[in-house]
Design goal:
Largest sheet: 4 strands, parallel
Number of domains: 2
CATH class of the largest domain: Alpha Beta
Bound molecules: zinc ion
CATH architecture of the largest domain: 3-Layer(aba) Sandwich
Helix content: 25-40%
CATH superfamily of the largest domain: Carbonic anhydrase
């Protein structure tokens, strides 16, 4: 059963109380952006003290500096004037629980949701799966701190933004 009705109801309530925030300017008022993980336990607005209109928040699995994350950061800077970026990863990240081989093998078996226990990942689907996972870089990591450094280095080395400073905050 879909959660769509719950989401629509919550959005209706949120929109009804949006008020003057509808007049906020497009560029983020506090001139910064955060690249962080999509983990459901993370609330960037709370952990970074954000209100609507304050900052850009770019999220993906792991908070990695993927090509698409860099695309968003470049837009954030070039067109919307952010002056500082933060790469924020977190402890107990799910991206430390698998690697490219595990993911692609699970996908090859079936497209159903896998589970994990103390023995590792298990696939329960009947297939057919997909071989496409073998052609995707999943950007997993083993070392949390090294992953932040790697992402900041990648952002700094991007030619479009090489003069820009990325800040590290873990
Ligand atoms: Zn995570």
């Amino acid at each position: 059963m879909s959660v769509l009705p719950e989401v629509l109801k919550a959005n209706e309530s949120y929109a009804a109380s949006f008020g003057e925030k509808g007049k906020l300017a497009l560029p983020p008022a506090r001139r910064f952006a955060i690249l962080t993980c999509m983990d459901a336990r993370l609330d960037p607005a709370k952990y970074a003290g954000l209100a609507e209109g304050d900052a850009h928040v770019i999220r993906n699995a792991g908070g990695r500096a993927s090509d698409d994350a860099i695309r968003s950061l470049v837009i954030s800077y070039k067109l919307l004037g952010t002056k500082e970026w933060f790469v924020i990863h977190h402890s107990d990240c799910g991206m430390q629980l698998f690697d490219d081989e595990i993911m692609s093998n699970l996908l090859e078996k079936s497209l159903e949701t896998a589970t994990i226990d103390e023995k590792g990942w298990h696939d329960h689907g009947h297939g057919p799966g997909s071989i496409h996972g073998h052609f995707i870089k999943w950007h997993t990591f083993k070392d949390l701190e090294a992953s932040v450094v790697e992402d900041v280095k990648r952002i700094r080395s991007c030619r479009a933004i090489s003069r820009f400073t990325a800040s590290i905050m873990t």
